[in-house]
Amino acid sequence: DGWQARLVAEGWYERLWWREAQNLLPCLACYGVGWRLARAAPLLATVSLALGSTSAGWIAHDFVHGRGRFCAAMRGFGALMNGHSSTWWSNKHNLHHACTNQVGVDEDIMSDPFFFLWPPDPARDSRWRRLQHLYALPVYSALFALWRFNSARTVWSKRLWREAVPMGLNYLWMALCLPPAVAVGHVLLAGALTATIVTVSHQAEDLFHEHQDDWVASQVHSTRDAVTSSPFSEWLWGGMQYQLEHHLLPTMPRYRYPSAAPLVRQLCAEHGVEYRVDSELGVVRRNFAMLREVARAGAEEGALPTRTETVWSRRDGAAWVGSN
């Protein structure tokens, strides 16, 4: 529309080399420190590598969304740093952007049997549901491991050898340069950090049981931003604290979202819709409160299933939580 055309004309989508360097350097520094300390200080190395891996995930997310030669050249960044296939991720993630929080369509809310976002039909219930808010963090830690599995399966089944090379280099690096505890530990910790961040901006918001004709309104009603409390958390969230800006302007470089946020807030005000935002702790608490509420609720006869394909191994995405 005219609003977005104006942003394009004003250069909001242009990438700046020095801002790209600002994103990459801390990420690479975390990897370098973790690699250097892997045997001398394995716990510190695990934390450093997990922070680098989390950051690499956000950077790869930005590159795959982005357009132009630079982003095209950097599409393999996630495979090299985290063993994640851009093809697998794109196929799942694009659907999430198109049909955010649409039940039966959006893979990112197909989280059962690990997590239920609404009381299920008794036939699809799990005895573990009542504990889902308690075991959330340990299960969240499996996120990157699951993404690695899905990525490897996709690359193998589709014969994506160009993606297999950087993925193979990542596994070779972990096998040769990291102790097993550090290699596994940083994947689990990065998964916990990433899953915590990516779930809170959508899961406790509006869910849609049918197709939404007003795409912009559906994005606003299904998304919540977070206000970070420090430069460190601003970096750690990797642009996902500006979730609504990202969903409305997905190909815009993430470092432009802080400046775009007032424009999006104004757009919401002009159309009389709530611009949903909370503190970073507030949005996390809101999500865990939702998990606890659903855990304590009784099953509901006739509740809609999350998916039409109920056999996990047959699903193309097969991920219980996605990347925003």
How would you sum up the major sheet? 2 strands, parallel
Radius of gyration: 20 Å
Proportion of residues in extended strands: under 5%
What is the N-to-C order of secondary-structure elements (H for helix, E for strand)?
A: HHHHHHHHHHHEHHHEH
Give the low-pLDDT segments: 310-315, 317-323
Alpha-beta classification: mainly alpha
Number of helices: 15
Q: Could you say which overall geometry the principal axes of the C-alpha atoms support?
A: globular
DSSP strand tally: 2
Instruction: Tell me, rounded to a whole number, the average pLDDT.
Output: 93
Helix proportion:
55-70%
Strand order of the largest sheet: 1-2
Distance between the termini: 23 Å
Structure write-up:
The chain has 324 residues and is mainly alpha-helical. Helices cover 57% and strands 2% of the residues. It has helices at residues 2-9, 17-37, 42-65, 69-73, 77-82, 86-98, 136-140, 143-158, 161-177, 180-199, 215-221, 231-236, 243-248, 257-270, 280-296, and strands at residues 225-227, 277-279. Helix 3 crosses helix 10. The longest helix is centred in the first third of the chain and has 24 residues, at 42-65. It is globular. The two termini are 23 Å apart. Residues 310-315 and 317-323 have low confidence and may be disordered.
Compact summary:
This protein has 15 helices and 2 strands. The protein has helices spanning 2-9, 17-37, 42-65, 69-73, 77-82, 86-98, 136-140, 143-158, 161-177, 180-199, 215-221, 231-236, 243-248, 257-270, 280-296, and strands at 225-227, 277-279.
